[in-house]
Specification:
The chain has 178 residues and is mainly alpha-helical. The protein has one domain. 75% of the residues lie in helices and 0% in strands. The chain is built from ten helices and no strands. It starts with a helix and ends in a 6-residue tail after the last helix.
């Protein structure tokens, strides 16, 4: 039996943060939208039925862990580098989103036992470079992210990030965007 109480409590605890991101059409929120939608759908199924399929339980647990990690990372960056100033955050939002992508990529590659050697160094160096730009409040444009994509792409053949997996799950479950 699936227990969604922790998920609902987490959403309640972070309601203001999530509402701010959603109201401002934050790309950080938008990148997690499929995960939110899948979790909400499973939460509704759990409330409606006494028992749901084990597959949904696994999807829910993995999705909630992922969502929690991503949001906590974003909140830490928001607090540490932007001192809870959304307008300052907005200026670097694509860079923050890219840091979340790199975290996701690191986890996926680690799970597949492919996070080592050159790709590990590339991801960590890219993360550090972007984080340093944010920390210094320095000049930033999307070319930094584009350059990183070009360097990382050859290593990512056949790799789906968690976000991509949940987009496929949402499609498979025929979940409409909410």
């Amino acid at each position: 039996m699936i227990d969604t109480k922790d998920y609902r409590a987490y959403l309640k605890q972070n309601r203001e943060w999530l509402q701010m991101l959603k109201a401002n059409q934050s790309i950080v929120y938008e990148r997690l939208e499929d995960v939110f939608n899948v979790l909400e759908d499973i939460d509704e199924r759990a409330a409606k039925y006494a028992k749901i399929e084990e597959e949904y339980e696994v999807i829910f647990e993995a999705g909630f862990l992922y969502l929690h990690k991503q949001l906590e990372t974003a909140k830490t960056i928001y607090s540490a580098y932007f001192h809870n100033d959304y307008f300052a955050f907005r200026r670097y939002e694509k860079a923050v989103n890219y840091l979340l992508y790199l975290d996701d990529l690191e986890d996926v590659l680690d799970e597949k036992e492919k996070f080592h050697g050159e790709i590990k160094d590339l991801i960590r160096n890219t993360y550090e470079k972007i984080e340093n730009i944010i920390a210094a409040g320095g000049f930033y444009d999307d070319s930094v992210l584009d350059e990183s994509d070009v360097v990382l792409l050859p290593y990512l053949k056949g790799i789906l990030t968690t976000i991509e997996v949940y987009a496929l799950v949402a499609e498979e479950m025929e979940i409409q965007l909410k």
